[in-house]
Amino acid sequence: MTVMSTQQNAEELSFTIVAEFDAKIERVWQIWADPRQLERWWGPPTWPATFESFDFTPGGKASYYMVGPDGEKARGWWLLTSIDAPTTLSFDDGFADDNGEPVASMGITRAVVTIEDIGGRTRMTTTSKFESAEQMQKMIDMGMEEGMTEAMSQIDDLLR
User: Is the whole model's pTM more than 0.90, yes or no?
Assistant: First the structure.
């Protein structure tokens, strides 16, 4: 199984998911750096993602949408805050309206991804930090934990 653990931390306003893969660190890095690969796993299987723009540089922006089984579109955006290939990536993540503009009422989640070699395998730890306890609870209630677990469970097939 790809996902090894998930943890919600109310005190730190964070959600962490740890996954391990039978692949080299550089290969796992590519699932973040290449938008076509990212589309194959960012979002649960029933909500596939399409990246409309993707500037994978510090300060760069990405915009995407996911389409649900009933055709509903959910839009999102990233602002890449730091990149240290192939081990660390940080970005601000938020919801967007139909025009791709940030939805302020949903807040911003700050994500940090660390990728490390664990003896020929690779561990990827993704930590999302929230602005408030209310925002964190809202994201958890919307299915963030299940959605990220399902999304990351698609990575093994992609890495093959």
Answer: yes
